From TrEMBL:
Ranges in coiled-coil conformation: none
Protein's cellular compartments: Cell membrane
Bilayer-spanning residue ranges: 51-69, 81-99, 105-128, 140-160, 172-192, 236-256, 268-292, 299-318, 324-348, 360-380, 392-411
The protein's name in its UniProt record: MFS transporter
SUPFAM superfamilies: MFS general substrate transporter (SSF103473)
Record bears the keyword Transport: yes
Membrane topology: Multi-pass membrane protein
Entry-linked InterPro entries: MFS, MFS_dom, MFS_trans_sf, Proton-linked_MCT
Keyword set, alphabetical order: Membrane, Transmembrane, Transmembrane helix, Transport
Major subcellular location class: membrane
Length: 424
């Protein structure tokens, strides 16, 4: 008798939807924001530092809204929340396109951040943790890879639009915002579900656990540290500062198009280089997600930080070569962007388990918001006053070294939690 064909677990459809939602929110919206800065600042006669203050405003709003966002996602229908979130986030880009002064960016930074809390910070890690009890690292990696793939497609189109369209950067902002809304809203409504239990399923990989016993199921699925215990540990504060610094490092990606153009290259080449960056994100997400599952999150972080340092050194000392710029930018995306999207959630699971993962991750993610308040405009002001991004790149290099130390301390803190019997 023929064996019945095994049905694809719905978790994989959830992952496809997340790849589209998070990929467009990060790869098309967030990562492209740097492409608009040179044109907008020139046309409106705004200092780069003053314009990029909108990133600080967005980060402050994110910091305030993150704990609230976690509660909203837990309480209300996830589809309704995400539809509103993407309209707020992508709609803000439409608003930027109609802005005639820096105040437009400051005002629309608020809905941009509120929507982005859900689409770029919370929903991916939380739903992966809900739906996948196996291959978590691979799932997170694929979400990061989707940002790379979609960004690699979007960046050259946006760069070309800015360079050639009648209304330049304004057309790019409006077209991008509307396109993301049109694609994401139907995806959310048709595919997403909050949890496998909501449609009568177990998470992917949980069946292997329940085949042993119900007691083992509870132990394996919910094992970890509570938020109350985690917040008292050195592991948590090391993780918090890792989030803060890796976001500060990743924030420089917003300025890479400006850095490239400051070297004398045009917006079209900057867009192409950012396509290389997104291809790096795509490949890095797959590679780092695989490495997390094979060698652990700590060792993967070490590899990523070292490779990122190499990319920074290349940008500093071999910037007269177009090929090197593209390769260095791609390597930066390969490592740094995925450290935020793939390694940070994986580190949280490795250090504290899944018992109160959503609460711990969203609390530690405040480091992401705090970093944006300072780092994004700081890089802009460094350029305004030094007339060069070189000092900023040296700062990035130092932060990469500090992150290696922080991750080492974090896992020493985990040993203390285990020794004290807090993992249960």
């Amino acid at each position: 008798m023929a064996t019945a064909k095994k049905k694809i677990h719905y978790a994989w459809w959830i992952l496809v939807a997340l790849c589209l939602i998070v990929g467009l929110s990060k790869g098309a919206l967030n990562t492209s924001s740097g492409l608009f800065i040179p044109g907008a600042t020139k046309d409106l006669d705004i200092l780069t530092g003053n314009l990029t203050l909108y990133f600080s405003i967005a980060s402050i709003v994110t910091m305030i809204f993150l704990p609230i966002g976690g509660k909203i996602l837990a309480k209300y229908d996830i589809r309704t929340v995400l539809v509103i979130a993407i309209i707020l986030q992508a709609g803000s880009y439409v608003g930027f396109g109609f802005s005639s002064s820096v105040w437009g960016w400051y005002i629309f930074a608020v809905p941009l951040a509120v929507g982005g809390v859900f689409t770029t910070v919370i929903v991916g890690p939380v739903l992966v943790n809900q739906w996948f009890k196996k291959k978590n690292g691979m799932a997170l990696g694929l979400i990061g890879a989707s940002g790379g793939l979609l960004g690699a497609i979007a960046q050259p189109i946006i760069g070309y639009t800015i360079a050639t369209a009648e209304h330049t950067w304004r057309t790019g902002y409006i077209g991008l915002g509307l396109a993301v809304i049109i694609i994401v809203v139907p995806t959310v409504l048709l595919v997403l579900r909050k949890s496998p239990q909501a449609i009568g399923l177990l998470p992917y990989g949980a069946q292997e656990i329940t085949d042993v016993s119900d007691e083992t199921k509870t132990e394996e699925v919910d094992k970890g540290v509570t938020l109350a215990i985690a917040r008292k540990s050195s592991a948590f504060y090391s993780l918090f500062f890792f989030f803060l610094l890796i976001t500060s490092i990743a924030s420089f990606a917003i300025h890479i198009p400006s850095y490239i153009q400051s070297l004398g290259y045009d917006a079209i080449f900057a867009g192409n280089a950012m396509a290389g960056y997104m291809i790096g994100v795509l490949l890095g997400a797959l590679a780092l997600g695989y490495l997390v599952d094979k060698i652990g999150s700590r060792n993967t972080v070490y590899v990523a930080m070292i490779l990122a340092a190499i990319s920074v050194l290349a940008l500093l000392f071999i910037s007269d070569s177009k090929i090197v710029i593209v390769l260095a930018t791609a390597l930066y995306g390969f490592t740094v962007s995925n450290s935020v999207g793939t390694l940070a959630p994986a580190l949280t699971t490795s250090l504290f388990g899944s018992r109160e993962y959503a609460q711990i991750y969203s609390t530690a993610s405040l480091g992401l918001a705090i970093a944006g308040i300072v780092a994004l405009p700081a890089y802009g002001y460094i350029y305004d006053f030094a007339k060069s991004y070189t000092p900023a790149l040296y700062i990035v290099l130092v932060l990469l070294i500090i992150n290696i130390v922080l991750v080492t301390f974090a896992f020493e803190g985990k040993k203390k939690l285990l020794k004290q019997g807090h993992w249960n």
